[in-house]
Amino acid sequence: MPMAASLRTGTAILPDFLLSRFTGLKLSSSAVHIRSACHRRTRWNAYPKCQLQRRYATTVRANPEVEARVAAVPIERMRNFCVIAHIDHGKSTLSDRLLELTGTIQPGGSHQVLDKLDVERERGITVKAQTCTMLYNHKGEDYLLHLVDTPGHVDFRAEVSRSYASCNGALLVVDASQGVQAQTVANFYLAFAQGLSMIPVINKVDLQHAEPERVTEQLLGTFELEDPVMVSAKTGLNVAAVLPAVIERVPAPQGSVDKPLKMLLIDSWYSTYKGVVLLVRVFDGVVKQGDHIMSMGSKLKYIVGELGIQYPTEMATSCLRAGQVGYMYFNPGMKTISDAKLGDTFCHLGKEKEVEPFRGFEEPQSMVFVGAFPTNQDEFQKLEDSINQLTLNDRSITIAKESSHALGLGWRLGFLGTLHCSVFEDRLRQEFGGSELLITAPTVPFKIIWRETVRDRKGEEVPKETIITNPALYPEDDVIRTKVQEIQEPYVLATITIPADPPEFLGHVIELCQENRGNQVELTFFSTQVILKYKLPLLQLVDNFFGKLKGITKGYATLDYEDAGYLKSDVVKLELLVNKEPVDAIAQLCHRSSAERLGRMWVQRFKSFVDRQLFEIVIQAAIGKRVLARETVQAFRKDVTAKLYGGDHTRRKKLLEKQKAGKKKLRAIGNVIIDQKAFQGFLARDGGGEPKPKK
Ligand SMILES: Nc1nc2c(ncn2[C@@H]2O[C@H](COP(=O)(O)OP(=O)(O)OP(=O)(O)O)[C@@H](O)[C@H]2O)c(=O)[nH]1
């Protein structure tokens, strides 16, 4: 058994080949890389098959030399900053270089140490903010730097906003060949609103078509940001200039170790081995192992177990002081991860009156919903287990049981956006088995404003409101006529950037936005770029808008969006009928203007997946009683006894068993028997429009 390069964690040694099997990592990199990777991966996916991975992930070793250096750094020499950028502009690569430069990880190891979730590696995107503490010697003095690598995609904006609470500054990374893009704009304003000091970093200057001068002008023109640091995170060129800029341009955190403890809960995740882990930022005071503390939100009391810094994995220290960000376990641990309310303030027990709690974070709302059903109803429990495993560390996913006449028992799942949804779908297909799963078309929440009134908190009479996330719960026509005042759908303010050349791009994009019921809000020309702002219904966005946008701009357009509230809409419920019986799982709420096109597409598509039967099958798309489209599957005559010729009875038995197993996957819609494969084919999406793996 090869034991060289084994990873020593605590008292156990795991051989290379086992380690690589359980972690999926190559072992050329240092042990630190491996442990870091193991640790990060467990935060998003708790894979049942990776017990060993999780066990090794949570191993903690104190390092007296590092701890002594950390303890000697006063608050004036601490800097907490995040790295923000448009997708793919190089945040994670730059973060890697900074970790190497400060000796936190070994140089030349595996890439993107902070992108460690399976999904991040597979798709080449960051979905979870990751943090790391570094020690950096500048002009002969040690500085304690706390870096947060943030996700670029709009769906994970809540992660970014939360990270800002632990930071005083931000590195705004811009690709030297692409310049300012949609998410650069969005991230800049978010960071600006939080009062963060921003350092522009122009990355990828090594590229042949890099235009650092043009991007410098753009940064000045768009954000009034001066003095960018020009780097190549890939080759390491000039990366050494980044940290001195952080020290000089990002203010030290405010706070005092002499004041009562005031600590903010920024993030939490679940470790099977040790339970709930908290990521905290200490604003005032000092917290040590054994301290009795309380949550000012829930009033629950806890005793601090182990605490320390992420260096880049957990490294136990004796205390965390004002200005620091670190991890913490309670002893006994928190019962469930939902007890860890992000944005909660903690103080020492008995000091509650002396501490003003933080306002907390805004809870992100689910905006994209799908139904998930097992093709074989016997597998319902297995699906439930898979969903529970995958949502353990992602509390932004909402889950509710759902029952469909056509598809049986399943789950209604809510996500922050389309990428969030498609990332989860991929994970669930991997975990549960892709061919065994039916996922319905994504939909958005609709708001129903009733004529009936209720009293609000101030005692004033206001119309009653209901949010509908499942078309099955949409009121019947007569209820809408008599009891509903209006129906609203969610809108977003979309920012689209495109190159000014070729000029046709602009025309195509305006056309696309108009076709999708968009209203132009702003159109700005920069030297080589155009930034458009449109108010668009979210429903249009989930219908592969990004894919279409990329298509008409040869992949050059970038898109970002923010919530723009609910607006009145002419919503209808489109249903698919099979021999007059509605197929509930396929019903969708849509705008009246798109109902006919969608209906026609539905009937043609469904027809192509339905097997002919002994009688004619009529497939229709309808709004209430009004039929919009119709297709017919002709009957055919089948000799059902053809295969059952006399002779070998075992053959006959096998055939019957096969039929029995097959029946589990059949569904009756009225008198029509439909194989789940038809639904699967009909509901299959090509997933276009989302970022593709880049490596
Ligand atoms: N040529 C060149 N490529 C770079 C440089 N920095 C990063 N890249 C490449 O650009 C791609 C994106 O880099 P990442 O670090 O993953 O970008 P990111 O901003 O973290 O991406 P998200 O996490 O998805 O938001 C990778 O293929 C990197 O290898 C650079 O300085 N020069």
Overall form: globular
- What is the CATH topology classification name of the largest domain? Rossmann fold
SS summary, helix count: 19
Whole-number mean pLDDT: 80
Per CATH, the architecture of the largest domain is: 3-Layer(aba) Sandwich
- Name the CATH class of the largest domain: Alpha Beta
Oligomeric status: single chain
State the strand order across the main sheet. Answer: 4-5-3-6-7-8
- Main sheet? 6 strands, mixed
Q: Ends: how far apart?
A: 33 Å
Beta-strand segment tally: 34
Question: What does it look like?
Answer:
- This protein has 695 residues and is an alpha+beta fold.
- It folds into six domains: 3-39, no CATH class; 77-249, Rossmann fold (3-Layer(aba) Sandwich); 262-354, Elongation Factor Tu (Ef-tu), domain 3, CATH 2.40.30.10; 368-439, Alpha-Beta Plaits (2-Layer Sandwich), CATH 3.30.70.870; 446-569, Alpha-Beta Plaits (2-Layer Sandwich), CATH 3.30.70.240; 572-683, Elongation factor 4, C-terminal domain (Alpha-Beta Plaits), CATH 3.30.70.2570.
- It contains 19 helices and 34 strands.
- The two termini are 33 Å apart.
- The relative contact order is 0.08.
- Bound molecules: guanosine-5'-triphosphate (GTP).
- Guanosine-5'-triphosphate is lined by residues 85, 87-93, 112, 124-126, 152, 203-204, 206-207, 232-234, 694.
- Residues 85, 87-93, 112, 124-126, 152, 203-204, 206-207, 232-234, 694 line the site of guanosine-5'-triphosphate.
